[in-house]
Amino acid sequence: MAIGPIQKQPASSPDPCSIAAQNLIGLLTPLVPDETGSSSTPLQTSSPREVLYAVQTLVSTLRPESPVFATFHDGRVHDPLGGGSYAFQKDVVEPVLFALMNDEILSNGEKEPLLSMKVTPPKIYSPCDAQLPTRPIVLHAGAQPNNSPHAGTIIVFCYAFSLARAIRDRMRATVTGTELQPPAVSVEITFIDTAPVPGHETSIEGIQYQKSYRDVPEALNTHMADYGQIIQLLSTWSDIPFETTFQSEFFSQPVMPSLLRYIIAHYETLGHQLSPKYGKIALRAACPVLGCGLAEKHGRLNLYSEETNTNSETESPKNSDSMIAFHCPRHGRHTISTSDPGEIACLEANAPARNLIRSMS
Ligand SMILES: [Zn+2]
């Protein structure tokens, strides 16, 4: 990006660095007090914008072989409310508890949901009439164990345990002096052990294949102790219990067969939405042949079949047995049935497909 007027130079002119330096000196000189101690003000000589442009121009010429570029910050941090932050403008814990209570009320179908925290805070949180969630509260966080935990992962883990502790402490304070017992609060860390292992990826006839961490134990175990140490430390600090889970447990949820049947019934539409490049939904499974373990990365060669009839085009099939056939470049096809929980646990999904499934589960 051009950052100031560029002077065209004849062949014999000084180099750009010298020109930029002279230009900057020319702008700065009037600001330096003379022998009498007086100096011109910036506004009398050159605008601050001209000085900043001159600095940027000079910086970009200092190292022509690999230029660096200067920018400036006005020192102001803009933190506007947006997205979910409106709900958490004044507090984080109370809106979470409020939402959990409403969710519980609606799922029980017993009565109308609570309308507003602002209208009913004494009723919700007063010790004499404490209304709190009754179901256990689990905060979820996840990580791909393909490196030692980096700053982002550590921050997320810290936030999960910190928020869990704040929720527990708020509920304990709410029921102080009563016989009520708040529900348990814990953290669940899910490891995405289906991420590709570097060095175990290959491309055959334009199709990408990978081995996932869970199929290369020595790779998976490389950094797990680091994660364990951090999670244990945070659990001790917060006095919040935790569990760790893996992708096989994610795909073992009771709702998974029906979710997969829905996805298979709509795999063409979902594929184009989630993966426009290939138009395929990236479900995969490692080849079951001992010692192989290759999985087709993007699900481009998957075959889907349904052995059921649906009542309408928009209704997901029920009580059916859908099949996914995966492709191994060495051993051919292998299949997974949506009616077999053991086979479903072998499924893998890339991040967009996994997020879809998580949001539906
Ligand atoms: Zn194979």
Q: Can you list the strand order of the major beta sheet? A: 1-2-5
Count of β-strands: 11
Most strands sheet: 3 strands, parallel
Individual helix count: 12
Helix content: 25-40%
Radius of gyration: 30 Å
Residue windows where pLDDT falls under 50 for at least 5 positions: 117-129, 308-318
Cα distance, first to last residue?
47 Å
Bound ligands, named by name, code or SMILES: zinc ion
Count of domains? 3
Give the helix/strand class.
alpha+beta
Shape type: extended
In N-to-C order, the SSE pattern is HHHHHEHEEEHEHHHEEEEEHEH
What is the averaged pLDDT score? 85
Strand content: 5-15%
GO molecular function, one term: aminoacyl-tRNA ligase activity
Care to give the gist of this entry?
The protein is an alpha+beta fold. The chain is 37% helix and 14% strand.
